[in-house]
Amino acid sequence: MFECDFVAHSGCDGGAMGAGLVPDGGPSVRVAACVAAALALLAAGAEGAAAQGAQGAARLWGVVTNLNGVPVSHAEVAIDGTPFHAVTNDSGVYRIEFAPVGRVRVIARRVGFEPAGERGTIKPGVGLQLDFELKGLPELLDSVMIHEAGGNGRMTDFWARRLLGVGAFITRDDIERRHPGKSSDMLRMVPGVRVVAGESGFDRPLITMGRNSVTSNRLPRSSIVPGSDCSVAYYVDGSYVPAGTFHMDDISPSMIEGVEVYRGPSEAPAKLRQRDTACGLIVIWTREPPRRTPPGGR
């Protein structure tokens, strides 16, 4: 007579299975049928547990950028009142797996930025995407952020301020993509900046921004003449250039590595403010000449 413990525990005997499920064929047939029944019970239990887990958790994900759309890395994103949190990668992306379902408040934080909070509902099996835009605080620009943004290179401040997102920034990639004829042409796509061509092809265009851009936008082009608005000020490779003594088009686009544009005192970093930067400030970084290879290739 054939007997086994798992048959008893699973309730798998000849009477329980029924004649239609366990054909007459001896112990081997009965064991095979019982094994199949036990596996089915285990599978059903696993599916039930997975379904129960899915109802209690889902994914939360999104992207953290500054106000200019630049990804913010190393930002902490946390579900308020819970231990669930994540840190953004170099693309500004975060993911929180197995986040609790229901209504949540999510907070994004990063040194040098104002915290931002968003609310949403995480649904089982669907999850939730929450994106954040962080406003930079120029006064909190410190050596830690400078090191993270660009190390100790010549353009360290450029990359650190670009990460903060206060002002407008033009990189070398932007220049090569746009192929501007003159350096001032790069400013035509910057909101809040107006570039008005001179009366002749030889006149430098008038660049207005900040408190003067509103006035300039309302005046007909013929009424705007050089000198009617205060001039923007410049920094070139970290050195201040007084307003009225230099123009952006004095440097060819091929010689520029990056440009920072600050449309008024509220945007300009404290370390760059001067008496005549109220009408706008343009910071230009020139390209470093390629290193010369000494004779003999050494």
What does this structure look like?
It is a single chain. The chain is of the alpha+beta class. The chain folds into 3 domains: 5-55, no CATH class; 56-137, Carboxypeptidase-like, regulatory domain (Immunoglobulin-like); 139-286, Ferric Hydroxamate Uptake Protein, Chain A, domain 1, CATH 2.170.130. 23% of the residues lie in helices and 26% in strands. It is built from 7 helices and 15 strands. The strands form 4 sheets. Strands 9-14-15-12-13 form a 5-stranded mixed beta sheet. Strands 1, 4, 7 and 8 form a 4-stranded mixed beta sheet that branches. Helix 4 (143-150) packs across helix 5 (156-164). The longest helix has 30 residues, at 27-56. The protein starts with a helix and ends in a 12-residue tail after the last strand. 28% of the residues are buried. The model is unreliable at 1-23, 48-54 and 212-228 (pLDDT under 50).
**What's the count of strands?**
15
* Alpha-beta content class: alpha+beta
Low-pLDDT residue spans: 1-23, 48-54, 212-228
Q: How many distinct domains?
A: 3
What is the mean predicted local confidence, pLDDT?
75
Instruction: Kindly report the CATH topology of the largest domain.
Output: Ferric Hydroxamate Uptake Protein, Chain A, domain 1
Strand order of the largest sheet: 9-14-15-12-13
CATH superfamily of the largest domain: TonB-dependent receptor, plug domain
Helix content: 10-25%
- Write down the Rg: 33 Å
CATH class of the largest domain: Mainly Beta
Instruction: Report the CATH architecture of the largest domain.
Output: Beta Complex
Q: Roughly how many Å apart are the termini? A: 91 Å
H/E series: HHHEEEEEEEEHHEHEEHEEEE
Largest sheet: 5 strands, mixed
Oligomer: single chain
Q: Per DSSP, what share of the residues sits in E-state strands of 2 or more residues? A: 25-35%
Shape: elongated
Number of helices: 7
